[in-house]
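Fold it.
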Amino acid sequence: MNIKTGFIRTFPRAYDLLANVIGVTPKGRAQGPDLSHWKDFYDPEKGTQRTDFAIMKLTEGTAYVDSRIDAIWSGVQKVPIRGGFHYQRSGMSWQAQADFFLKVAARYDFHMLILDVEPFNNTLNDSFFADAYRIINFWTEKQPSKRVMLYTNKDIFQNWMYPAIKRLYGASGVKWLCEDVPFWYAQYWNEWSVDKDPSMPAQRATWDLWQITARADPKEWGAGSLSLDLNVFNGTPEEMADWVGVTLPTPEPEPEPEPEPIPIPIPIDPTPEAEIWNATVISGNKMICRKYPVAIDATRTGYYVTGGEQFTGRLWVGNGYVWMLIDSSPRVELPGRWVAVRADNGSSKFITLTKTAVSDQPSAGLRHFVLRDWERSDFAGDITRPNLPMVFRMGQLDYVSATHFTDMTEEIQYFCLGIFSKVYYGRSWRKLSISEYDVLAQKTAALYSGARAFNNRHGMEMYRNYLTRKIDDMHKDMVDPAIETIITGGATIEGEVVLNRHAEKMVKVCHFDATKPMPAPDDIDPFTDPRVFMATTITGKKIGTGYSVNPFPQHVGGLSPNVPVPIIARFDIYYRLKDLRPVDGMGKPSPYWP
């Protein structure tokens, strides 16, 4: 052990402080992210950092395949050095786990095969660590051309795995664990850096990969989420390529920069035209997204759009270009940014344009009011559910009770937040203070919790929460929550009337199509758009011919007590006409009673 390594192990906090004060020596290490299903997308070409390798989750236990494996692989395959990992589960056959992982990994082209050993959902005992030993050695035997690795953290290695392996396999096991098996090590400093060194377990001196943080900026690496795991190799990119046995590709030359036009006086307020256009990027180079429509370094945002990417927006001409102010995009960081469409003299064209429909809001007419329990012909009995929503299902044409769930992706969560912000604060969520944003994010998560009918145990308090700034509430290892096609009594919906095979008249309900990009929340009026309803609760208090109906409690304290819920679905959804009454005009009757 050298002096520096001994100092880090003995005084890790002092090393962290000293390194932050005096800096660390640049080491030129290879660097890259590791990814799993909680990343909405991954494309290293959209990142701003150099990516030398990427690692992704493939499997867990004996049957689970990561739910976004192919979407993540589409980005990982662009990286020269690639790894895949398996999350080991206790109480399951080690042989079945080992075979299952190799079967899935064979579909892809990886250079590193990694066993992830962690405590979550596992029993840490000798049997568990004996299985880890068997799996790694089995993979090493079956895949001699791959680097087979162990991933774990300091506590597991030092306090659990080392004692178990020593008890089970003696000196040979200790040598295997502490010297032979390639090691991917997780350990975070308060202030992370690719050039620091880790505080190693007492029994092991060397590391191969080091997971240095779970708080990297995903936008810098081309990933879609709020945070990202970042790793470094204990050597340069060239040394890592030699270590895994690959030849690095010759780097392509940097793309030609966007031409800088002759400076033109910048107008005070560039106001785009009202018409909305569909845009598709045709340029082979990255197109810079700017905070102001003028091509100078000061307006760069660090974001780019690339060939084939699509979005919608409005146009403005000035400063040498035709510009688009992006209104809607699957990437939540793009709305509100400017991008050049073409030179204003027609000499260069970067983006093609097509006209959108006249309005994204449903056409006039055929509006209906959702009857409350006691207003429905099939209702009988007393109300016995105070302070709960009186909810009804929107489903298939022939089976209205057959609702379906739609994943609440990062885009959809921010869309719902944007609608909430218009009602609660009266302005875009992008214009909120940090404290205002945190309040709204908390209220949004409360509405879309698993206890609410809209999510039915698939809520944001248990599944992936993209809105919160609290690391513990992100649930970043979980899948996206889901919203069910449910509506509350008193809502207003719109759609054409059709017959199902039971000869029942059904309304084909207008909704936001989850298979397409969400529109810009600023373009939606939740008080008139029938695709947004105000959630209601029912009390046990009888008033005349009905019962007291109140707004949801989530928005107490805002500009309006109304709690807007967008109707979002992946398929056509229907509601019985007999449980509706027609609405005159294009407004929405009050959803509350009396």
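The chain is about 20% helix and 25% strand.
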